[in-house]
Amino acid sequence: MLIGKILIFSLLIGFLEAQICEVKRFSSVNGKRVERKIQTCCRGYRRLGKGPKIRCVATCQRNCGSGTCSKPNVCTCNSGYKNFNNVPSNRCIPACKGGCSKGTCQSPGRCVCSKDHILDTASGNCLPHCPSGCPNGSCVLPNKCNCNGGYSLNATSQTCHPICDQNCASGNGVCAAPNHCECKKGYLLDKESKSFMCRPVCSMGCDNGVCRAPDVCECKKNYQKGPDRNCVPICDYDCMNGNCTAPDVCECHKGYSPISKSICLPVCSGGCLNGFCEAPDLCTCNQGYMKQGSTCAPVCEGGCENGLCESPGTCTCNKGYGKESENRCVPICEAGCENGFCESPGKCSCHEGYAKESENRCVPICEGGCENGLCESPGKCSCHEGYTKESENRCAPICEDGCENGFCESPGKCSCKEGYAKESESRCAPICEDGCENGFCESPGKCSCNEGYGKESENRCVPICEDGCENGFCESPEKCSCNEGYAKESESRCGPICEDGCENGFCESPGRCSCNEGYAKESENRCAPICEGGCKNGFCESPGKCSCHEGYTKESENRCAPICEDGCENGFCESPEKCSCNEGYAKESETRCAPICEDGCENGFCESPGRCSCNEGYAKESENRCAPICEGGCENGFCESHGKCSCNEGYAKESENRCAPICKGGCENGFCESPGKCSCHEGYTKESANRCAPICEDGCENGFCESPGMCSCKEGYAKESESRCAPICEDGCENGFCESPGKCSCNEGYGKESENRCAPICEDGCENGFCESPGRCSCNEGYAKESENRCAPICEGGCENGFCESPEKCSCNEGYTKESENRCAPICEDGCENGFCESPGRCSCNEGYAKESENRCAPICEGGCENGICESPGKCSCHEGYTKESEIRCAPICEDGCENGFCESPGMCSCKEGYAKKSESRCAPICEDGCENGFCESPGRCSCNEGYAKESENRCAPICEGGCENGFCESPGKCSCNEGYAKESENRCAPICEDGCENGFCESPGKCSCNEGYGKESENRCAPICEDGCENGFCESPEKCSCNEGYAKESGSRCAPICEDGCENGFCESPGKCSCNEGYAKESENRCAPICEGGCENGFCESPGKCSCNEGYAKESENRCAPICEDGCENGFCESPGKCSCNEGYAKESENRCAPICEDGCESGFCESPGRCSCNEGYAKESAKRCVAICEGGCENGFCESPGKCSCIEGYAKESEKKCIPICEGGCENGFCVAPGLCSCIEGYIRIREGTCKPYCPNGCFNGSCVAPNVCNCENGSVYEFSSGMCVLEKNDFADGRSTDYLGSATSTTSWYDESTDSELSSSIPDLLFWCEKFCWNGTCIEEQCTCEPNYKLHRDEGDDGRLLCLPICEMECINGYCLFPGMCACFDGAEPAAGYLCQHLDGSGTGEQSYGQMSGKNRLKWLFIAIGIVAVVLSIVIAFLMCYIYKKRSYRVDKNEKEFGVYFSANKVDVIRA
Q1: How far is CA 407 from CA 371, 401, 418, 860, in A?
Q2: Looking at 766-813, which runs of residues are DSSP E strands?
Q3: What does 231-284 look like in DSSP terms, one character per residue?
Q4: Is the pLDDT of residue 3 over 50?
Q5: Radius of gyration of the chain, Cα coordinates, nearest whole angstrom
Q6: How far separated are the first and last CA of the chain, in Å rounded?
Q7: Coil, strand, or helix at residue 1051?
Q8: Which residues lie closer than 8 Å to 790 by C-beta, 6 or more apart?
Q9: Neighbour tally for 443: CB within 10 Å
Q10: Which of 1046, 1064, 1390, 1393 could share a disulfide with 1087, CB 3.0–4.6 Å?
């Protein structure tokens, strides 16, 4: 136990330290070999990333696929995946429920079945598929059914049919289940029959007939087929308006009554006056009449206005009316209607624009009245003498000389307006109470100025100087005088006086100077030039122009820089001829500064402060050291010097950048994985150290394994599936199967007809047919089955009234004769007039005819022919004096008609009730009390004339639709007004006020009311009201003021003075006169300017004491603005608005950016600062001015073309982004390409020629052939023995009870089945499959054979001889434990086995009896020594590994096929590391 713990502890320490190892590296420095120790990842690990801290991750020899490499050569699978063969080092493959037997697991849970198999979702395995579905049976092999008991197989269709002892077909049935007959469709079981018999069913019934076949009904005598195909009784003369209820018995429809044995006519209970009875209680009116209620009334097409329709097309006028035309009656007024019209009998209505004066006279209306005149005609007035028309409704008095500023009060008499006084009889002058200085009174209270003067106030005018008097005042029209401190400069301008002058400026106001543009005040009388940005190291010469001091030169408009004539490399000119270095640089000379790298630059030079660049052919290893570069890398070697690789031990140079492992004997069907160690290609297994043989996992029945997963068949056999070859019978085996090459056997129920054909057997023969399948007949062409062994002839079109004699040939029944190939017609010897022969000797009538005698049919008119005769079916002819009223009725003729009556007999009318005869052909309705303004519509019922409505039963009143406001409706649609009102519209009368209502309205006759916002001034006038008054104005309309001249509205009730040109920064004091606001001074009559005392440099005074900047400038202080460059000046300064200048060492790239200058450029990089380059992303510095591309993982067998992109060396092709593999043009069968044009065989194969490797079996496959590496295909009844690797004669080892005997994967279970007795097993294929699946544990049944997965062996169970077990193989025997997985032991006590196979005794005594059977003392002692020896060897290996591993560098490679197809190596060989 102590030794085991020490061993485990040592291995644990070794594992932790094994991740990071120290190795020696040698390089040449100045011709000397220098040794240095570096840390790197140990074997089985690789470095992750490029940082200073080493991180190592595990590597797996093979791609884990759908998993991750968690430990060296240990794959941890993703969910839904498992290790191939459950070996941790194998790649992860998809896992499927149940194992996916007979299929391929393509993705987790997705099982894709083999050909002719389907997935069983319950078990997860693939079951054989039969297209027919095997009803009443089971599918045992693809397209092969096995029938249940009581069913027989149809070999052609692979369906199972039930067997019945009875003949079901003879009883119109079919065999539905074993010994169970069922009726055919359209038949029903006859339960009274002793034997099986089905009777036909007629779904529509077969009353009065016999059902001969499904839905075929044959009628009884005196019955015939109806529209619904049922049998109905025959009535010889049919039944007009009735139903034939029994032979020759009619029953009338409801509402009809019989007039003969076969005719029924409709009944109208109230009679049909002026019409006829068309259907029960339905009358149809005669021509010229229309239905009104239940009667037929005469029709007058144009109507009868003010009258009634007496007969069709004839009107009669009402009382008091006279005929104006055929359809119109007008009222009569005997005394006439002056200016109006007769509205109704004896009643007048006025024309429009007139009003009634008396019953028979109307006078004109003038709606607005006629002031001082009279109404001549509607709406037209005439004036009285001395007056003239002023408007349509008013006449004004005439004053011949006029009334200036007044109005004519009455003819020839004037009155003055308010504010005026009489000057003469015809003139009034305005009054201005306070007078008009320098002007005259223009209108009441309003003055006008004399010429050359303008208004100063309401009563005063002042002189005008048109050009103004700048800095002065207007003394008289067009004459100015100057203010104090000013002198006349021109007629209209006075200039300020500055006694001492204004240098570089001008006199702004008396004694005050202002500077010219670009100058600023230096003293009261002098202005100096301005340079806005200042003049650093210089002085301002003139506005905006600087001059430099001595030793300086202009750098920009406002700056002078010191001059250092020889420049300052990596520094700047501090003052004239004096340089200073930039940070990180030190002075090398007066004019140059060099960068500082504190720790030096091994194999390179200091490029910039703290940054080294490597010499050509070197690359950075650390900040201060450069290592030699081998551009394509040094696979399995190390870079000795620039561009030169050296190989590790056991490797040889394959190319400049790659060292390949050496395997001396070659690797047939494999590749050299590491020095002296071969690995097999995918699909091969090791046969010897230098040879790999192909693997066919499911074996090759009747064949041999030619290449991985591919079988070849023996002679006389052909491939049936990937792992099975079936015997070939060249001409086939019709209705049989190929038993062995060239030999057929017949299926059950068939007999041999020839070598390649088996014919079905039908024991009772097949009349008119042939035996189709065992016990089943098929009919000859033109025949159909009548019973199991007999076929009857078919006539496709049937044999109507006959029978089928032979195929397509009919014979007629007795009493019939042939009419066509498929029809026989009945014979009637005496013919059938108006009918046809229905059956022998019996006639049936044509449609529309009924039987009159045995051989004659008469026409039928269904409703009969009242007052006529039936001429042909449905057509009547009338008797004399009658005419057709309907198809079945003739009515008597009264030539002049019978209005409101009916024709009783030819030429004779009778009146309806409530009507009286007016003439021979007309009856009029009777209304006893008359109909005022209407007419008698029907007996006792009045109707109103158009435009009238009923007021009572016998009177109608006129209608005015919109009503008659202040009036009454005189006649339809016409109103008349009440007294004191006049028409305003068709439906309204308005009150009359004779003198009008100014600013008001006439409320009632002679009474005015004011409009809203007005107040009464007199009876006929209203004045507007402004409640808040009108300051500087007058009230024009309600709440609306108007302003006096020179004023404008400020608010609703106030008017403010107007200054036409405005008062900028001031206010209008009086019309045309401005005053300034505080902080402003007058600049002109209409403008006041703000005052800023300190001035506004590069700007203007926006408001008192506040400056605003000119465009392109921004505020620097209260009185100064600086220029703006909106997007800034990167690496420069703003010279003027929007214009930048660059700092030293920079040049303009755009308007707002200065870029650093690197004189010789920057290849694959960019200029970071003046004279300093930086690399683009994905590139690294090679020299100060050149960058090269970086490929992080290197470029195996290639070179880095651009960042992250590799290109291959000639003879190689890309396998991945960072790896190129050699190309072998002809391919490498069972091998792999190790170098361009050079193949190497995979493990278990040997080379037979260039590009081809064959499998190798080291023991020679005695009694068999080598089909895959170390796999023999045994022949001559021998079986493969894995322990010896040979084919041996089959032994009955299973019977002796030894659990150590086993069968290889090629052993067939059929040999085991053959040993069983007949009572135990059946030799049929379904039984073999059943027994194989029942007794094959942990294996797969392939072609009825129990087959184990690779690295498992077939054993017979010790406890159950009938059970076969597939158990894992562990090459090292598991001591005190058992083999859990291939190559993996587990201890009985659950502990971890030491060295992978050694477990402690369960009782600690060392006897091992409980766990290992009966072992002799000698054996126990032997295993103890073996265990001690193994521990010693392992400790030696660990010590040796720790001492020498650091000297060895490993690389790993997984070939292309392994990535694509997976791993198929045995568990004891998959852990081989390819180095």
Answers
A1: 17, 11, 11, 108
A2: 769-773, 776-779, 783-787, 790-793, 802-806, 809-812
A3: EEE--TT--BTEEEEETTEEEEPTTEEESSSSBEEE--TT--TTEEEEETTEEE
A4: no
A5: 67
A6: 36
A7: strand
A8: 767, 768, 769
A9: 14
A10: 1064
Q: What are the structure tokens assigned to 1291, written together?
A: 């032994």
Show the beta-strand stretches assigned E in 600-669: 604-608, 611-614, 618-622, 625-628, 637-641, 644-647, 651-655, 658-661
Percent helix, strand and coil across the chain, each to the nearest 5: 5, 50, 45
- Residue, of 1398 and 1409, whose pLDDT is higher: 1398
**Cβ pair 685, 1469 in contact under 8 A:** yes
> pLDDT digit string (tens) for 313-323?
888 888 888 88
Amino acid type, 679: S
Q: Can you tell me the distance from the alpha carbon of 482 to that of 475, in angstroms, rounded to the nearest whole number?
A: 10
Q: What is the DSSP string of 1299-1356?
A: TT-EE-TT--THHHHHHS-TTT---SHHHHHHHHHHHEESSEEETTEEEPPTTEEEEE
Beta bridge partners of 233: 223
> What is the 8-class DSSP label of residue 1405?
S
1438 burial level (CB within 10 Å; 0-12, 13-18, 19+): middle
Tokens of 508: 């702004």
Largest distance between two CA atoms of the chain: 174
The alpha carbon of 904 is separated from its chain's Cα centroid by a whole number of angstroms, namely 82
> For residue 1320, is pLDDT > 60?
no
Q: How many Cα atoms sit within 13 Å of 316 on the Cβ side?
A: 15
Cα distance between residue 932 and residue 346, in whole Å? 13
Q: Which residue is listed with tokens 């002809």?
A: 1226
How high is the mean pLDDT of the chain?
Answer: 79
d(CA 331, CA 318): 9
**Under DSSP, is residue 962 helix (H, G, I), strand (E, B) or coil?**
coil
- Output the pLDDT for position 1311: 35
Task: Give the amino acid at 1415.
Answer: M
What are the residues facing 905 on neighbouring strands?
A: 908
Of 820, 797, 682, 697, whose CA–CA distance to 1230 is shortest? Answer: 682
Cα–Cα distance, 1133 to 1142 (Å, whole number): 7
Spatial separation of the C-alpha atoms in residues 546 and 1433, rounded to whole Å: 95
Single-letter amino acid, residue 1199: F
CA torsion sign, 1455 to 1461 to 1465 to 1469? positive
Per DSSP, 1293 falls in state G
Q: Is residue 855 exposed (0-12), middle (13-18) or buried (19+ Cβ within 10 Å)?
A: middle
Tell me which amino acid residue 1085 is: E
Structure tokens, 1313: 């089945």
Characterize 273-289 residue by residue with b for buried, 16 or more Cβ atoms within 10 angstroms of its Cβ, and e for exposed. Answer: bbbbbbebeebebbebb
DSSP states along 141-160? ETTEEEEPTTEEEETTTTEE
Supply 1068's token pair.
């209008």
Percent of the chain with pLDDT over 70: 88
Give the CA angle between residues 122, 124, 129 to the nearest 5°: 90
Written as one letter, the residue type at 1322 is: S
pLDDT score for 183 = 92
Instruction: Decide: 315 and 329 in contact? Cβ < 8 Å.
Output: yes
Provide φ and ψ at 621, rounded to 5°: -105, -35
CB 332 within 8 A of CB 343: no
CA distances (Å), origin 1349, targets 165, 428, 688, 1384: 52, 140, 21, 16
Whether 482 and 471 have beta carbons less than 8 Å apart is answered as: yes
Q: CB-hemisphere CA count at 13 Å for 340?
A: 29
Question: What gap in Å lies between CA 1104 and CA 1078, rounded to an integer?
Answer: 9
CA distance 1006 to 992: 6
User: Cα 758 to chain center, whole Å?
Assistant: 63
Its sign, for the CA torsion 1319, 1323, 1329, 1332, is positive
Distance (Å, whole) CA 397 – CA 383: 10
